[in-house]
């Protein structure tokens, strides 16, 4: 019975750690969106999309 408790403790710790990694790795953050916007602006993608929309 002790081995079951030890296994459960280790499993719960692993699940918590994976949960924290998944939570901190989300790409829906505002800073990520700002970086994406800046990269699109510097690469000219926003200008191309704007010109394409105005032609349609």
Shape category: rod-shaped
Would you tell me the structural class of the helices and strands?
mainly alpha
The main sheet comes to: none
Q: What ranges have pLDDT less than 50 throughout 5 or more consecutive residues? A: none
Radius of gyration: 23 Å
Count of helical regions: 3
Helical content class: over 70%
Please report the distance between the alpha carbons of the first and last residues.
Answer: 70 Å
The succession of helices and strands, N to C, reads HHH
Task: Count every beta strand, where a strand is a DSSP E run of 2 or more residues.
Answer: 0
Strand content: under 5%
State the domain count: 1
Q: Compute the average pLDDT.
A: 77
Kindly list the characteristics that best describe this protein.
single chain, 56 residues, mainly alpha, 86% helix, 0% strand, rod-shaped
Describe this structure in words.
By secondary structure, the chain is mainly α. The protein has one domain. It has 3 helices and no strands. The protein is rod-shaped, with a radius of gyration of 23 Å.
Itemize the secondary structure elements and their pairings.
Blueprint: H1 2-24, H2 30-43, H3 45-55
Short recap of the structure:
With 56 residues, the protein is an all-alpha fold. The chain contains 3 helices and no strands.
